[in-house]
Amino acid sequence: DSLLLEAGFLAVLVAPLRLLRRGSPAWRPHDAVTFWAVRWLLFRLMFASGVVKLTSRCPTWWGLTVLGVLEPVSCCPTWGDHKWGMQLWGFRCWGAHSVLCVPGPVTPPTPPCPPQVLLQVLIILTGNYNFFNALTIVLAFSLLDEEHVGHWLGRPRKRHGNGWPPSLGSVLGTLLELSTYGLLLCWTVRYFGLELDWDRKLLDSKVAFTYHEFTTWLRTVTLPLVGVAFLSLSWEILVAMYRCACVRGCFWKLWATLQWAIMATATVGLFAISLVPFTYIEHESNGKLWPGIHQMFGAVERFQVVNSYGLFRRMTGVGGRPEVILEGSYDGHSWT
Fold first, then answer.
1. Which residues touch 228 (CB under 8 Å, ≥6 apart)?
2. Where are the beta strands (DSSP E) in the chain?
3. Chief location of this protein (predicted)?
4. 3-class DSSP state of 195
5. 3-state DSSP assignment of residue 196
6. 281 near 310, Cβ under 8 Å?
């Protein structure tokens, strides 16, 4: 419900009333700024959800056995959980650790999208969590650009000459995308000790780092991630300001600049107050935030426009759960 509230509030900025649009164009100079806030929400959601599973010291997450007990205690397990559960449990477990920490404005836009969507689809196949996974998939689509979704919107893909030799930008983009996938794969293999057992034809895995090493890493990267996100947002704001200056017509230029100023201010404000719940994952980093940010967050906390996220921090029902057994009888002696 918190995610639905925050995503719904961002939708007001991303898709405001038609009266703010000039005629019928579907694009405005500041759209990239407000859309950045959606990617920042996705990053906070997935990063925190991956981190809390390890900061909780839950033995089932650290032992990569949590999904083996998820079926009997999950929310309305689906038919797929009974049929494919054993085959998907191991993949989902280390996938949840590694993939959750990838998306958002601190990585190249496109590469994290397919793993995120795949993870959510696997969860949908094996459990019923209402709209949550569908909403997360929608947020993951924010990582795609026009090259991938333009044909859905009736826009032809841009032609790059004859296609050979490829442009420098396309080569660098492809290399960046491949390197991101390669880094994710190497990181998963190394830190989850993936080994192929040829005799048993199984893929074994184990957590190859300690709790102290993990908390040290988390303390090291939390504030730098905030800095990278700030630089990313600043870049989007500057590019949007330049696009406003390129709008034709003095009146429309002023109108675009006014919209840019309002939306950029709102996005920066949301980013600032979101740092408080985001840094809940690391106490020292939260204490280093400027006190004014804590005051701003306290003023709007009751509206839940920004929230902290950490799904399934600890697994309950590991040793089983109490069950209500209903019995009936026609004669009062034989009970079914």
1. 105, 106
2. 195-197, 202-204
3. endoplasmic reticulum
4. strand
5. strand
6. yes
* Mean predicted confidence (pLDDT) in 31-50: 90
Q: What is the pLDDT of residue 123?
A: 79
Where are the chain's structural domains?
2-14+28-155+170-303
Residues in the chain: 336
* CA-wise closest residue to 51 among 263, 283, 244, 264: 283
DSSP string covering 273-292, please? Answer: HHHHHHGGGSHHHHHTS-HH
Select the more confidently predicted residue: 185 or 155: 185
Write down the pLDDT at residue 137: 92
Helix axes 250-278, 211-245, angle to 10 degrees: 170
Structure tokens at 143: 């990582």
Q: What is the pLDDT of residues 251-299, one digit of tens each?
A: 889 989 999 999 999 999 999 999 999 999 999 999 999 999 999 999 9
Q: How far apart are CA 319 and CA 336, in angstroms?
A: 26
The structure's pTM equals: 0.81
From the number of C-beta atoms within 10 Å of its C-beta (0-12, 13-18, 19+), residue 42 rates as buried
